[in-house]
Design a protein that fits this description.
The protein has 475 residues and is an alpha+beta fold. Helices cover 22% and strands 32% of the residues. Strands 9, 10, 11, 12, 13, 14, 15 and 16 form an eight-stranded mixed beta sheet that branches. Strands 17, 18, 21, 22, 25 and 26 form a six-stranded mixed beta sheet that branches.
Length: 475
């Protein structure tokens, strides 16, 4: 050990791996020898036998390499021919041959069984000791019961011939009943509460998950000498799934709970998306709103006649299919596709039909400008006042139009007076530069007109441009 600390030991990579495993064992337990009657030594051997790099580096007492194979050992329950009051539990190879000698159990995540020359994968552990005999005699009354046949299922043992017709294998499926509960720890708090149960398809057995594990809630009477055996494989991942959502068990509720935070809807949506299909979900309406598709919205440009000589040009968001207040629309747009909590306790998302640049412009405009009142479920983002002409196009600043006989000056008029200050100019410039270069607009008082929106000067605190009157037909 001292030479190793002084970097005085030279060895190949596999030897180094074996040495590091041994040093870890020595530092923890202080033993220089391996006593296989001690479980720690058996666990150490499990670790080294599972390292592919150590093949050929571990030998038995005859200095022969141990063979680590993939063929599993398993248990078979048989009617004991020598004792009618007992069943025999026999260890067999993958080829069905009886194992004739004892083997050493090497505990680990993957159980291994070591013979004199070979190491096998094998069935789950059911004995406290690590010295496993190849055959055990078990009283009939122990195996001929619900607990007995369940024990055989857990260790993967085949049923004896006398029990095969009496045993019915059923599956237990997990079920999550989810709801929101307010005021559990304080008046203003809210929690996700989940009742976790396991239910047989035909309702013949129900179990509930508690802090201590699965507990029997209900068992239907068994007909005659029938023995029910329940497959529980779908229940094994459930505790880990609950941990992913930070759920803890509450003795008073007899359920699992987790506090609602600002990040809850995003986390909950991802959690449900990754949920295994074999888990039945019963989710209340407010939680289901998180899983619903986002509400869609469209952006349109609206011209409204205000005075004899002027139009108001508005950029408006229309929300489809729901009735929302202006304040709610503003919250949804500002959330940039994220979740917003509604007054009824549900969640909602908004999807605006814009590309990335336009979406950014709309978001900033809603957060910095007032909203015009109106009867529709919509909100006005920006407003320009321009001279009222029958048909016209707004061209780029300073450009000329061969078809434009006249030129008129125009000035943008923001919705709120605050937007007139020089400080607001960069925001307005950004917003206008992100708008489409051409839009079709239906005036309240005139026929449809095609406009090419001008990109204004970045220097001007209040935007100016050129308004070119044209005689071309509207698109």
């Amino acid at each position: 050990v001292e030479l190793h600390h002084e970097a005085a030991l030279l060895m190949d990579a596999s030897s180094q791996t074996l040495w590091e495993h041994y040093l870890s064992f020595f530092r923890k337990y202080g033993d220089t020898t391996l006593d296989f009657d001690q479980e720690e030594s058996c666990r150490f051997m499990n670790r080294v036998f599972r390292q592919p790099a150590l093949k050929g580096y571990i030998v038995n007492l005859d200095e022969r390499d141990f063979k680590v194979v993939e063929d599993r050992l398993s248990w078979v329950c048989e009617d004991d021919p020598y004792d009618s009051n007992s069943f025999a539990l026999q260890l067999v190879t993958a080829a069905g041959e009886n194992v004739s000698h004892s083997v050493r159990l090497l505990p680990g995540r993957k159980e291994l069984y070591q013979s004199d020359e070979t190491v096998f994968p094998g069935p789950p552990r059911w004995l406290e000791e690590t010295d496993v005999m190849p055959r055990y005699s078990i009283p009939s009354r122990v195996i001929d019961s619900l607990e007995g046949v369940e024990f055989l299922r857990k260790i993967g043992a085949a049923l004896p011939e006398s029990l095969k017709k009496r045993v019915v294998d059923l599956e237990l499926k997990p079920k999550f009943e989810m709801k929101l509960v307010a005021g559990l720890t304080a008046a203003e708090t809210e929690h996700l509460v989940i009742d976790v149960t396991a239910i047989e398809t035909k309702g013949r057995r129900t179990e509930r998950l508690t802090k201590e594990g699965w507990e029997l809630s209900d068992q239907q009477p068994v007909k005659g000498k029938q023995l029910l055996r329940f497959a529980r494989e779908d229940l094994y991942p459930v505790p880990a799934i609950l941990d992913e959502m930070g759920l803890t068990y509450d003795e008073k509720l007899i359920s699992f709970k987790s506090r609602i935070t600002k990040q809850f809807p995003e986390k909950f949506a991802e959690w449900i998306k990754a949920m295994p299909e074999n888990i039945e979900l019963d989710i209340d309406l407010r939680l289901k709103s998180i899983l619903a598709d986002p509400v869609t919205a469209a952006v349109r440009f609206e011209v409204v006649g205000q005075d004899i000589d002027w139009f108001d040009l508005r950029i408006v968001i229309d929300v489809q299919g729901v009735n929302l207040s202006k304040a709610q629309i503003r919250q949804l747009v500002a959330a940039r596709g994220g979740y917003v909590r509604m007054d009824d306790g549900s969640w909602m998302r908004l999807e605006i039909k814009l590309d990335a640049d336009q979406r950014e412009a709309v978001t900033r405009l809603v957060s910095t400008h007032s909203i015009f009142p109106g009867k529709r479920t919509a909100c006005t983002l920006f407003n320009w006042r321009i001279p009222k002409l029958p048909k016209f196009s707004i061209l780029k600043h300073g450009s000329a139009s061969k078809t434009a006989p006249t030129t008129s000056s125009w000035k943008s008029t923001p919705i709120c007076q605050k937007a007139l200050t020089p400080r607001s100019a960069p925001i307005r410039s950004m917003a206008l530069s992100s708008l489409p270069t051409s839009v079709s607009i239906t005036s309240v008082e005139s026929s449809p007109t095609t406009w090419d929106l001008e990109k204004p000067s970045n220097h001007s605190p209040i935007f100016y441009g050129s308004l070119k009157s044209t005689r071309k037909q509207a698109a």
